[in-house]
Amino acid sequence: MAASTAAGKQRIPKVAKVKNKAPAEVQITAEQLLREAKERELELLPPPPQQKITDEEELNDYKLRKRKTFEDNIRKNRTVISNWIKYAQWEESLKEIQRARSIYERALDVDYRNITLWLKYAEMEMKNRQVNHARNIWDRAITTLPRVNQFWYKYTYMEEMLGNVAGARQVFERWMEWQPEEQAWHSYINFELRYKEVDRARAIYERFVLVHPDVKNWTKYARFEEKHGYFAHARKVYERAVEFFGDEHMDEHLYVAFAKFEENQKEFERVRVIYKYALDRISKQEAQELFKNYTIFEKKFGDRRGIEDIIVSKRRFQYEEEVKANPHNYDAWFDYLRLVESDAEAEAVREVYERAVAHVPPVPEKRHWRRYIYLWVNYALYEELEAKDPERTRQVYQASLELIPHKKFTFAKMWLLYAQFEIRQKNLPFARRALGTSIGKCPKNKLFKGYIELELQLREFDRCRKLYEKFLEFGPENCTSWIKFAELETILGDIERARAIYELAISQPRLDMPEVLWKSYIDFEIEQEETERTRNLYRRLLQRTQHVKVWISFAQFELSSGKEGSVAKCRQIYEEANKTMRNCEEKEERLMLLESWRSFEDEFGTVSDKERVDKLMPEKVKKRRKVQADDGSDAGWEEYYDYIFPEDAANQPNLRLLAMAKLWKKQQQEKEAGEQDPDKDPADSEPGPSGPC
User: Fold this and answer.
1) In whole angstroms, what is the distance from residue 239 CA to residue 232 CA?
2) Closest alpha carbon to 282 in 215, 338, 356, 339
3) Principal place where this protein is found (predicted)?
């Protein structure tokens, strides 16, 4: 054990230590080493001596040695097919064809899937003009490996070179049963065309486009027919291709090829029809080439109208893409319909309208329906004004009204438009029935107003009265309705009825605009010159509200009555209003009353009356107050103006004390000024007015 360890240690080479690591003075590169080796030819071995065979015995001995070498190689590794091929080729070089066949057969037993083996075997037979043997090998090859196209190509080429056209055709037919790739079909078609067999080539194309149904193959088929002068057949092929692919698998290249074919045949109208048909059905992203070719065609053969059609088609495609992406984008539908209406037949416009209105908003909420309902409005107006079809217009209105969920909401516009349409068609009963149905299903203020306006135009006043009664039953708080009803009765001359309506209106517990109603009632009585009734109305109104405008209006009414004592009555109302509004917190309103009173006295009053009102005018004082933010915290101070009325100051002791202090301070200042100027006449300084005691 120790000896072996020692021996092992001796076998380990020692690494020489490099003492001097500095670069050598003369440097040498790898390139120089290779060049020197080439020059010296160190790796070249001398050729073996040539052996000359002089007799048959030496030849047999040579053959034996070579065969033994080949057999040994095969025995060592049977799967290396190159050894088998070299062996067979060596036998072939010695014209030992039978032995070569035997070797190839043995090799095929080892690996029959090797393509090179079959090719070398068949080439050997063909090289030695063994045609039947070659046919046998090709038959075996295509039977064993039918998906190897090389065998089929070689086999058909051999038969064609031998002039056996029928045999080659038979091989092609056997090949086509396997439905090979496209190039194989083209080879078969070219084979038939080389022998002027156009009908056979057409039959092959028929099978080809069904096995490989691509657009390019249909196009090749049509070009084949066109090339050989069969233009009707070519057109039929294109039409079949369009029908075959349908609308689901449309391809712009097919239509471009079809259009160019028709263009070559000078069929320009057909070309336009093809382009328009394709553009109507292919999406914009997939039709760029189509648009480009269509534009070029129109520039070459079209007029201004044709170029405009292209632009319209492009816009139509844009809108189609938008509405496909979002069918509920009603703005896109409006733009699309505007485009179609400007340049399309009635049927095409109707089709787009039907598609648009079919996309009903998914949620039954009015805000989602507001844009949608205008599709129906535009549809009906188009049918009536553009298409001149009253019956279809009626159907559109009825369909829209059936679609709207009236229990949740309605659109008065649709009902009124339908009624107005029926009136234009002189169908008054239909219009009344529609409006009556609308009021019964979904009463709205707008519907009542529209129906009443219609009956007013027809001078059907009894119907108007009934409608107003229904209207006020539906919305008794609507002051405008009461006023309009009373105005109608006034126009008809029934004053007592109008007055009764006003009385009934002001007695309602809840009104939306009571001030408008009272003003209208008062104006009504003024127009009837019922002064006492008007005065009573003002008194009744003041029992309900003490608003400053009511007092001012009352005073102005008394002034404008023109009767004796009207100025005194007006002044009396101002005084009464001032007393009433002393307890009012809104000081601006009280100031407004006093200013109105003062302007009245300026025009109709005496000097004493004016002074009296001036004494009632307040003093404007700037004050400060704390401001609080929304969260309750202090936000600092702000300045504001307040009004101090003399009557209020007299009732408040602290204000009286403040006024006396101001007066005393003023007197002190005047006294100090007099002491500083002794030459001044004491009579010049007058005492100030005494303060309130």
Assistant:
1) 11
2) 215
3) nucleus
Whether 81 and 117 have beta carbons less than 8 Å apart is answered as: yes
| Residue type at 571 in one-letter notation | R
What are the 10-residue block averages of pLDDT along the chain, 693 residues in total? 45 68 82 82 71 83 88 88 90 89 91 91 90 91 91 92 91 91 92 90 90 88 87 87 80 81 79 76 68 68 56 65 73 75 74 78 76 80 79 79 72 72 74 67 64 67 64 61 63 66 63 64 64 67 66 65 66 68 66 68 68 65 72 71 60 58 78 63 43 34
- Rounded Cα gap, residues 571 and 11, in angstroms: 143
Q: Which residues of 619-640 are buried (b: 16+ CB within 10 A; e: fewer)?
A: eeeeeeeeeeeeeeeeeeeeee
CB count in 10 Å sphere of residue 255: 26
Give me 123's structure tokens.
């080439």
pLDDT at res. 25: 81
Our measurement of the distance from residue 438's CA atom to the centroid of its chain's CA atoms, rounded to an integer in Å, reads: 35
Which residue carries 């006492």 as its tokens? 532
Please compute, for residue 144, the number of CA atoms within 13 A of its CA located in the half-sphere on the CB side. 15
Q: How many other C-beta atoms are found inside a 10 Å radius of the C-beta of residue 666?
A: 11
pLDDT of residue 382: 78
CA dist 131 → 88, 172, 191 (Å): 19, 18, 21
Check residue 8 and give its pLDDT.
Answer: 45
For residue 589, with 0-12 CB atoms within 10 Å meaning exposed, 13-18 middle and 19 or more buried, which class applies? middle
What sign results for the dihedral spanned by CA atoms 293, 295, 299, 301? Answer: positive
CA distances from 463 to 409, 457, 524, 549 (A): 26, 12, 24, 38
Note whether 271 and 262 are within 8 A (CB).
Answer: yes
For residue 216, how many C-alpha atoms fall within 13 Å in the half-sphere facing its CB? Answer: 3
626: which DSSP letter? E
pLDDT given at position 358: 78
Closest listed residue to residue 288, CA positions, set 256, 259, 257: 256
The span from the first CA to the last CA of the chain, in angstroms, equals: 143
Q: Which residues contact 582 (CB under 8 A, 6 or more apart)?
A: 590, 645, 647, 648
Packing angle, helices 268-279 and 304-325, rounded to 10: 20
Residue 417: predicted pLDDT: 76
In this structure, what token pair is assigned to residue 346?
Answer: 């009635």
Q: CA 479, CA 145: separation in Å to the nearest integer?
A: 98
Contacts of 89 (CB under 8 A, 6+ apart): 100, 120, 124
- pLDDT at position 190 is 93
- State how far the Cα of 574 lies from the Cα of 554, in Å rounded to an integer: 9
Structure tokens at 638: 């702000």
Rounded CA-CA distance 245/261 in Å is 19
Phi-psi region of 47 (alpha: psi -120 to 50; beta: other; left: phi over 0): beta
- C-alpha distances (whole Å) from 51 to each of 44, 47, 59, 90, 529 are 21, 12, 11, 17, 155
pLDDT at 121: 92
